[in-house]
């Protein structure tokens, strides 16, 4: 598929989603915007872990970096009296740059580490966030975090468009843009180099691939995507606080990538959707369960975590390629039984899917 | 090679939207007679965000069940103007990101009449603009931050607790009377809580009144460094601007270092029963003489008509739950809302609810007056000292009223409890 066609398709998807928000309640628009923010981070993780084979638990830290960059930039602009589109675009750019820069620095160190050592290193990053924010509490607002001045919807749209709906538009546009960029990167020379390094770095090196550079670039790209996600989350929620970017979020992002299907960007979409809608629907369900008040209190909040964990175990046991793997298997079966449906040449060759093996390689 | 991805992506997105739309069509359809959100002919729905899971859960998760128990009691006795109160409690895990989401759900999807007793400064700050933009009454925020008292900027938000500034002045006044020559120090949370408390203390004790001022972060449970520094500075009376878990941590750590100063804690972190659940078997020794300030009926005071009534309600509507300061807090908050709703008239609207509060006719059940008026949304405007003696935390002396920087004894009697503890 040529780049123009994929751009047109992406523009079509964005337009379709934006027009769909007109049919949604404000709260669902808000959830959709959250899905878009998480999608950016999960997609970044899919590139890094799925295609690059580098297991990172630090995605939440990179999102936090994006969120704080957004917050600092937006507040500085607001203080200078700047309003309008600049108050939205400049902080988003700052979020991408900030996270990418941190990703580059981490990548330089992480490029030397494999498997569990890399996981441990990135784990330390995310655990360090609260310490960093309270050490620099004058700048970063300590545990309470930063309160952000955001660009509200234009006055002309008030009444016609809810603030939540308005906020979902930049989120949709950013998420689609991130997906297009990552998709193009993976399909090009960089994607091939990345997969070569993942499968066997010695062989890749012998073929002329610069292994260290490839790893560092993949870390930076993944960080930039997480930065967009963090910046969007900061924009939607008007705040950046250490509590929002905990180790739990990092684990959730990784779980979302695995459940969705770690080998493909489409899987990231499923993962992000599950991250937002699964806990929500379970909590709504719990509220309606005919159980005693004491029991309901125990279940509230906790049941969602338990179900998420169960689904993760089931997915790993029964469908290691995640939801997307199941779907493409079903699609292939459908094509075999209905041979007239799609001409054979366009069927994608089966990609080798990475397993989350952490034992490969030496430190 | 990815020609199949975009259609799948589109399908995924469409499926998600359909899912979301289905999931959301369930609630919020009960339009009121006069189109007041959350009010029908038979019910009034209010919501709250509480830390039912996460780091703050152990100290505060028992508050919302107590409020709910009081509402159930009122509902069984005919409700307010014939309407029952539905109380929707959402867990935010004390995480502002979750608060954002659950409060939007309550307001936009469940269409609650008001948000009641949202707990915690960081979580609630994150929805302050949202609630005021959407003109949702945001009543009785369960935090002592002075942020909630900004009627000009946040006309829909009302406080409940004595704010940290008030509380710190009450404690400082008492401590100066009792221990005039002691060295005073502060152990405070690294946010507005600690900062406001420090400002209040310095206003009362003088700008050099604190010999040492230490801060902690809720992310780090080891406070040995701070406590050692206080010990080294020769601190004799330590003010605690900390949540329950960290008050216990400070006291326990000091004891391990063989350091036994006087402690004077904010009510946010000075509940005896909650502290004893952290401190275990040494509680009695460690907390003897522990000073705190409160404004609500004391849970230990069986002679107090409110305490007796709340205890009875707790046994019947909240069976199995211990009766402590959190229970009193939750029920008092519920009572204050019922009183306001009662005053808001036969057919309450959001406007009439706020008018009732601004009129000053809502009194609550505290030992000190509420600050509600057209130009103040401050909650209780003073405090009364509590002391722990022989394992019982009870009031001592008379209440203090705080007005600006002046602290004076408050002598007026508390309003009597209406029959059955329900506003008539």
Largest sheet of chain A: 2 strands, antiparallel
Strand content of chain A: under 5%
**Quaternary organisation:** heterodimer
Give the distance, in angstroms, between the N- and C-terminal Cα atoms of chain A.
39 Å
In N-to-C order, the SSE pattern of chain A is HHHHHHEHHHHEHHHHH
Helix-strand string of chain B: HEHHEHEHEEHEHEHEHEHHEHHHEEEE
Which bin fits the share of residues in helices of chain B?
Answer: 40-55%
Question: Biggest interface, and residues per chain?
Answer: A-B, 68 and 57 residues
Q: Give the overall shape of chain A, derived from the CA principal axes.
A: globular
- Helix and strand content put the structural class of chain B at alpha/beta
User: Which strand order spans the largest sheet of chain A, edge to edge or round the barrel?
Assistant: 1-2
- Rounded to the nearest angstrom, the distance between the terminal CA atoms of chain B is 74 Å
Q: Structural class of chain A, please?
A: mainly alpha
Largest sheet of chain B: 9 strands, mixed
**Residue-averaged pLDDT of chain B:** 86
> How many strand segments of chain A?
2
The radius of gyration of chain A is: 21 Å
User: Overall mean pLDDT score of chain A?
Assistant: 85
What does this structure look like?
The complex is a heterodimer of chains A (363) and B (424). With 363 residues, chain A is mostly helical. Helices cover 72% and strands 1% of the residues of chain A. The longest helix of chain A has 27 residues. In chain B, the strands form 2 sheets. In chain B, strands 6, 7, 8, 9, 10, 11, 12, 13 and 14 form a 9-stranded mixed β-sheet that branches. A 5-stranded parallel β-sheet of chain B has the order 2-1-3-4-5, sandwiched between helices. In chain B, helix 3 crosses helix 13. The longest helix of chain B has 20 residues. At the A-B interface, helix 1, helix 2, helix 5, helix 7 and helix 10 of A face helix 1, strand 2, helix 4 and helix 5 of B.
